[in-house]
Amino acid sequence: MKLSKPLAPSTTIGIVGAGQLGKMIACSAQKMGYKVATYDPNPTSCAFAVSNWYKVAAFNDREALLEFARSVDVLTYEFENIDGPLIEEIAQDTDCFLPQGSKLLLLSQNRLTEKNWLSSIGLPVVNYEAVLSQDDLKKALTTIGLPAILKTTRLGYDGKGQIRITDSTDVTEKKEEINRLLESPCVLEAKCSFELECSVMVSRDQSGTTELFPISENVHHSGILHSSLVPARISQVIRDDIHLMARKIAEEGQLVGVLGIEFFIEKTPSGEKVFINELAPRPHNSGHYSIEACNFSQFDQHVVAITGRPLASIKLLSPVLMVNLLGQDMPLVKDIWQNEKNAVVHLYQKGEAKVGRKMGHVTFLDSTVEKVIKKADLW
Ligand code: ADP
Ligand code: MG
């Protein structure tokens, strides 16, 4: 369903998921005069603090989620692991309004479906095979070769649900771990020997206009995003490739809102090659830099798109480095907070600072990429 006119201020945006992404969507929505309702099973979710009202219930509680969806003016989500049939039901329900639809959400819930779809529209992904059993794994290891990565098709995040298989001894040494992963469907991917990783946030509105955010260059530590640098140090050819791919995904996926796309850039003897790693049908950690470094943030743009208004033309205002603050990084925060000029510290107020848990992020702004890179030495 399309909105015939934009949603007015004071109407309510419902967000499924009330973690830090939900919180940052909520802050943008509040700034624009909307009310916000959030939904999450965790009673201490950080986005509740910035919600007009919230509901604590399981993501697969059909009654509760339907009631929530019907009681808000527009529904969105901060995370993709919502029960598939339930989200379809909501998308079809005439009392609910889910402008994003269910297509991209359903595609990106499953790594195999996502890769099949990307391949079907002619976009490059690393070699992969579906793996449902030990036998499949044996066969896939022959076709894909080593090194490879075994991943669960569903529910993986921050590098969880993945096993690296570097050589043939790994298969025996990691047997138990592999067996546990194979209790649910998996996919075996060729390990890409990338030069660098990058990502782009693409936004699209109801009328089909697409706007891209600047591409960020990303560093991951142990499968978790560590930092994003913008502008990315990539060639114009790669930039053009990424832009074409992002537009194609937004159009073929009938995107409304914001979507994050992760890429691997590999250097081959015949030149550089881009592969799509994965999609996130929502604002994404690697787009947090846009809060301070762009005229409109990814969260602002998402709210604009789902409320039926025309997108902003995105401009980068400054070179920027975004560094995530994990639980173990918290002792560094005081020094940055007190002494660093042009650094904006975001703290999500998520409670206990566990190792590996995203507690906040810092955005460093400076006049050149070289200067912002120097800030990374703080880590
Ligand atoms: P998640 O959903 O946890 O973000 P990803 O598939 O993006 O899972 O994996 C996390 C990180 O692990 C990637 O950003 C990349 O650094 C590394 N990685 C994942 N798959 C591959 C691959 N096929 N080749 C090389 N590195 C990979
Ligand atoms: Mg990823």
Describe this structure in words.
This protein is of the alpha+beta class. A hairpin with a 2-residue loop joins β13 and β14 (271-280). It is built from 13 helices and 17 strands. The strands form three sheets. Strands 9, 10, 11, 12, 13, 14, 15, 16 and 17 form a nine-stranded antiparallel β-sheet that branches. A four-stranded parallel β-sheet has the order 3-2-1-4, with helices on both faces. The chain has a four-stranded antiparallel β-sheet with strand order 5-8-6-7, sandwiched between helices. The protein is globular. It has helices spanning 20-31, 62-71, 84-92, 103-108, 111-120, 134-144, 168-173, 175-181, 236-252, 290-293, 298-306, 330-339, 369-375; strands spanning 12-16, 35-40, 53-56, 74-77, 128-131, 148-152, 162-165, 186-190, 194-204, 210-212, 216-221, 224-230, 257-268, 271-280, 320-326, 343-347, 358-365. The model has no long low-confidence stretch (mean pLDDT 94). α1 crosses α11 (298-306). The structure holds adenosine-5'-diphosphate and magnesium ion. Residues 126, 149, 156-159, 189, 191-192, 197, 220, 223, 262, 277-278 line the site of adenosine-5'-diphosphate (ADP). The site of magnesium ion has 2 residues, from loops.
